[in-house]
Design brief:
- The chain is mainly beta.
- Helices cover about 5% and strands about 55% of the residues.
- It has a 4-stranded antiparallel sheet with strand order 2-1-24-23, with no helix packed on it. A 4-stranded antiparallel sheet has the order 3-4-5-6, with no helix packed on it.
- A hairpin with a 5-residue loop joins strand 9 and strand 10.
């Protein structure tokens, strides 16, 4: 695909995204254990409670704040954070661009996909306190991303077909990893990544080892839902309607970790746990 085609494709995708931003809310739950030492969810709280788009949450390293993006009436999005102790939403960015997927890479810096004025979609680095844009990477057409370590960035590129790629901050090398990925891909540790490839009916999950430059199949699931995390204790977790499903690596089976139907959660599309595993945050599609 030539440069002009890439620009047209990216512009089209941005317009579609703006037109179709879903109506979503972000919910916070406490995680506790019952008398049987089973994990349960308590004290549900809608922390956004805003008509429109509130999505893509991430915790601060100390677990005291939840960063997310919120849509305005014109379809533009800005970064906010929710102060858990003060129960207060605070704006971080006030820009003429749209920010998506805020990710804290250290205590002071957010990385975010920014839709620029020419419709390019690049990763920008933003001061988490002032909201000031400090730096950006030159790769375009980025949909989603994650940092494997301080050097290796893995990102979802809005090519045709969509692809999963990785970029070295040190050497500036940019390499292909896979086609037709799901939007959820996460670091297992500093050199291993879990990601999913989808067809029309199911997702196959793979682990890629960057030291060995080799992938192996890890799990399968018979639906094309795209949101996963890698939990340090529970391993691979994915959302399926209003449930969170956990994969048992030993027995090669899936089981329900949390069922949120009793909280009137309709469909979970994003979810995260705080660093101490005391809280769960989910995005509910209304």
């Amino acid at each position: 695909m030539n440069k002009l085609s890439n620009i047209i494709c990216s512009f089209f995708l941005v317009l579609v995204a703006k037109a179709q931003l879903p109506n979503t809310d972000i919910w916070l739950f406490k995680i506790e254990t019952d008398k049987l030492k089973q994990f349960i969810l308590k004290d549900p709280l809608n922390i956004t409670n805003h008509e429109g788009y509130d999505n893509q949450p991430c915790f601060s390293p100390d677990g005291k704040k939840i960063y997310y993006v919120s849509g305005k009436d014109d379809g533009q999005t800005e970064v906010f954070y929710y102060d858990i102790k003060k129960k207060k939403n605070v704006p971080v960015t006030i820009t003429k661009t749209s920010e998506y997927s805020p990710t804290l890479i250290d205590d002071k810096t957010l990385a975010s996909v920014v839709v620029e004025s020419d419709s390019a979609q690049r990763i920008h680095f933003i001061d988490a306190l002032s909201g000031r844009d400090t730096l950006k990477l030159e790769m375009d057409s980025i949909g989603y991303f994650t940092f494997l370590n301080s050097d290796t960035l893995v990102y979802y590129k809005l090519t045709q077909t969509h692809s999963l790629r990785y970029y070295s901050m040190r050497t500036k090398e940019d390499k292909w990893l896979a086609n037709s990925p799901v939007r959820g891909f996460k670091a297992i540790n500093r050199h291993k990544l879990i990601y999913g490839l989808k067809d029309s009916v199911h997702v196959t999950f793979y682990v890629y080892d960057f030291l060995l430059h080799k992938a192996y199949q890890y799990a399968e699931y018979p639906s094309v839902n795209e949101d996963i995390i890698w939990h340090p204790t529970w391993g691979l977790i994915k959302s399926e309607e209003n449930k969170l499903m956990r994969f048992d690596e030993v027995n090669q089976t899936w089981s329900v970790l949390f069922d949120l139907s009793s909280f009137q959660i309709k469909k979970i599309t994003r979810f995260i746990f705080d660093p101490e595993n005391k809280c769960l945050v989910v995005v509910n599609n209304l």
